[in-house]
Records
---
Amino acid sequence: MRNLPESWIHRIAAELRRPVRLDEEFDRGVMDAVRAMPRHRQRPWTRMLRARTITVSPVVSGIAAALLLAVALSAGHFISAVRANRATGRIDVATDRSGGTKPGPRRSVQFVLVAPTARKVQLVGDFNDWDGSHQEYHAQHRGGGVWSVTAAIPEGHHRYSFVVDDSLWVADPSAPRVLDDDYGVPNSAIVVGGGDATQ
Amino acid sequence: MSRAIRVSVALVSLSCLGQLVAWRAAFGQRGADVRLARLDSTTRIVVAAVVDSARKTRLPTEPLVDKALEGAQKGADGSRIVTAVRGLYAELRSARAALGTGAAAEEINAGANALHGGMPMRTLSQLRSVSQHAGRARVTLPLTVYTDLIARAVPPAVASDVVLSLARAGLRDGDYAMFQRNVRLDIENGADAATAAQTRARGAALRNVGR
């Protein structure tokens, strides 16, 4: 090609650029031959698996990403919530430190404190979330400085104390003290009932 | 992409985000115990985190909340409450490690109390195996008896031996209750706490052997 003169190259190029016209019979013959060939049927998944180019605008792709993120986070939360639900469900039913709203068999227990100068005595403990504001935990003055309260306490081992005049914490002198110095104020211990599962 | 498809995609996205926010709100409320509102905000966050850790590791959460509430009612400062709650969390973990993963929440709680009262972890594990061998499914009651003995000034080593001997003898619930009552009466009548516990334990074991 390098030895050909320039004019020849131009003539060859012009000849190649010239449109080729085939007669209509030829076109029809080719198309008939194509139609006569057995059809290649595409299966549904073949079409889905076939690689293709999709054009998506930045806005749509952003929305799609947000959608995927939301679905993933929701699924994560759902799984963790179900797991936590299972865990707490197993624990809460069996727990023995019960307050007023907790399940379990209860027994009436009388608590007595001698406090001649007291104006108010409340019973607090792990059975009422250490909150003696409920009326059923208010001790009644029986005269002679004797205060008593009878409360329904869940079976099990409990820690409790008396609160005198809303400020002074007093352990029950008639009950053993708990070796629990976390807060520097002593508690008393009581075992209500003796229920335990045996085989 | 047609306008209708874009609008529907946007609506679905918004509904998913709304659902996510609703989930977070619902489970956030459920996760944080409302009773912890009695604590100041900093303490509440730390205690809630410890409680959450316990929940995730399937430890009992109620004793932790109870410990925090006790501190709040007693007017303890936040750092003291956090220290107490963390200490209890560590004891709950140790108790479960000693009792095994199949231990019930009440057993883990009682085990934590026993560890706090000076029972060695080895004794706790021994108590579990001895009790199972003697046909007792749960060790809650023996552990409660141990805590009661400690509260009555019985030394931890003596109380551990006593509870192990009672478990080996296969005492029933009623026998444990009678043992506790007898020890209490002996101490109230002036007996030495350790001697009362050891003597009553020997008697209870002998009585059970004869059955």
Note: Chain B has ten helices and no strands.
---
Amino acid sequence: MKNIFLRIVVSGLFLLFIKPDFILGDVETLMKTDNCISCHIEEEELPEDFNKHDIHMQKDLSCSGCHGGNPASDDMDEAMSIEAGFVGVPSKKEIPEFCGKCHSDIGFMRSYQPRIPTDQTDQYYKSLHGLRLKKGDTKVADCSSCHTAHSIMPASDPRSSVYALNVPETCNACHGDEEYMQEYEIPTDQFTKFAKSVHGVALLKEQDTGAPACNDCHGNHGAMPPGISSISHVCGSCHVNNMQYFSDSRMGAAFKKEKLHGCEECHGNHEVQKTSDEMIGVDDKAVCSNCHEPDDKGAEVATEIHKQLTTLATTYEKALAQQKEVEHKGMDDLDIEFLLQEAKQSLTQARTLVHTFDSVKVTVKVKEGLGKADLAIKEAQAQIEDYYFRRRGFGAATFIITLLIVALFFKIREIDQRNLNKEDRR
Amino acid sequence: MFKKTNEKIYHWMDERFNLTPLIEYMQHKQVPVHKHSVWYYMGGVALFLFIVQVCSGILLLLYYQPGVDSSYESVRFIMTKVNFGWLVRSVHSWSANLMVFFVFVHMFSTFFTRAFQKPRELTWVTGFILLALAMGFGFSGYLLPWDELAFFATKVGTDIAGAVPFIGEAIKIVLRGGEDVTGATLSRFYAIHVAMIPALFTVILSLHLLFVQRQGMHEPDYYKNLKPEQKKTIPFFPNFVLRDVLLWLIVLNVLLFLAVYFPWELGPKADPFASAPEGIRPEWYFMFMFQSLKLLPAHVWFMEGEVAGILLFSVAGLAWMLTPFWSIKFDKSARFNPMLFIGIAVIAFIIFMTILGYLM
Amino acid sequence: MSTSRRKFINLLLGGGLLGWLGSIFYPVFSYLKPPPVPEANVNSVKAGPVADFPKNSGKIIKFGRKPVILIKMDTGELRAFSATCTHLDCIVQYRDDSKQIWCACHNGIYDLRGRNVSGPPPRPLDEFAVNIVNDEIIVSKMKEIG
């Protein structure tokens, strides 16, 4: 059973690699059954991005599936006549409706995939792209800008232009083009910034599809820059606790009142970095001092939180070093490791609790972690002491052995003496 | 009362096994006393350390589990979780090294006092075989903890074996149990270390001891020429044996000291796919060979340097084993003692190369 | 030599010998006594009697160096997963209200198959095998496939 499956996969891969180019494999059968393709191949008029792996081709919707016409007829005029339903190439403005005539029809789409969404066109017209297209701006993205026209593949397919790992490049094709974007007066360095961010590194470098791409924050068909009120919700869809703490805090309320941008104010947007304890406090690197004066109440809280976090972090580091020493000395570090795990957990939680901006809550968590870390240090010291205790055991053994050696020495002397006496007598 | 029971048991045994002549033989056996008597004890110390090895080795066997996923873990387990496991493991490692050291000392003292001469040729040959087996013990045992250093040292060591002309590749594959050092190698080395070499060692050691008992202690030339009344001796039993025991106790204490104050370390677990760490070196008693092979030029005469080196060491080893059969008679009138010269040259070479190996 | 001196030496020798034997056999016998965890590689861990473990609850057990979460579902079925969150190594817990595995650090949520369903965790939790032998729960490593 497993073998058959394996064979299918392997032979599939094999086909993929020996026939990388589009049509060659099926050209014979297609030329027999589909006159659009056979004729367009002959005339060398196939669209440039034509790909037989296109999802529509795979589902037997060849050219006429979108463009209409009669693929059974070998007469060109008849095949591409209005009577045959031929619509030709849609204009830019027509594209959303062109795709939507099927994709917005759940009755039709259901036969391919019962749970497929059918609101793409609707969403699109509410996106900034769609709104502008309606107004006649033909530079904005339409369906084919992201999905391509003739190489459309599902987002789950790694070859697809909208596969998670490919999304940033796809968006960047327009948004990174300074000249193209000039008239919109928005930045074009999002991709460069994103690639350096903690999300970008995870997605692009580590190929972790769990990391967010552009569309995970901005939406896809309904793409819009997230509004002020929605930023913390966008981040919060993954960083749940952080959002909850923040929105329940006084800081959250104040942000709302001041119309500040939630998470983004401190963490940035596209270039969001891995956080560090230095971000809180009143130092140069601290983000608090962007708004707070060094002597106000907020700075006081920030300083306190910073102090708490670094206390736990350094104690944890110290405990970790002790554990390493215990391990190096060949002593038992198992319990220490469990304690350290718990201390680390408290540290992680305390760091999350920063978003309550409540130094008491952070302190409580830090105390909990300090307790664990101190216990770990104590245990480590006990182990290290035990290590030296062995030397005392050696002392005791040496005492006994020395006693035996001395006794034996005298015994030997005694025996030698007896021998000499015997010889003398002789 | 106590004495009576003892005597009864002795009589019971004596009746059946005729022990009295054996005891008498031992009591009448005399050990010469002279300024070089101290060398008589070296073999005994090596024997004692071998006994320690057997005992501590058996203890380790109770917890050790050979295997890629368990060797390292079980050694770590022995060191951390088992009561006194750290001590047993440390004693086993230290005692192994001390044993090889004392075997060397014993060998060279025999060489310089010319104790290998007729009638003790075979005692020398069996002794040499014991040295080779002891080194085999060390080489195979080094891998068993499966830590980084052990892994790469074994890799290098078996590679050298692979350079032997014609049969080297086969030896290497048989030793490794495949092309590379893997779990298969570990199983093999385990079998070699705890079954094959111990069995061989026991047989050869018995022969060696039997020869010594049969022939008695060798008397150096100048002592031999003394008049019988000038020859100072002590009985083998109990006088010499007790002295032996006394020395063993001291060695045991030194061994414990080393094991407690310089516990044998366990490096990070071997990772066959990691690049070799710096400072890969064999155990110290292989160092002089390892270093010499490293120093040889790429090509010697018509052979590869390494091959030439291995051939040379093989020939030298064979010659050393057969010393009693070719040794040059020392003419007292001549000032130059060729055997003394050879011995000193060999020691100087070994020491120099070993030091060089650790410096480079 | 006086007899008393000889006697004293013999006494010293006997005492020393006894002490020596003690100092050898004490470590050897304590070495022979198996330690509490009798094996180097933990392949399975006893987690107590089935009856003592209520339905719809979870507990953390120590599996060698790793924490493992053992869950008894409403149906009485037992499941075990690595308790180390795949996000930042916090220790996960069972939520009896939502019947999910939950990580308190960043609100990561896994379903009762160990799959990461919400929050930051990037990967599912590794599953452990649970067997019941003589009414006692035994958690063990999953056999490797292939």
Note: The radius of gyration of chain A is 36 Å.
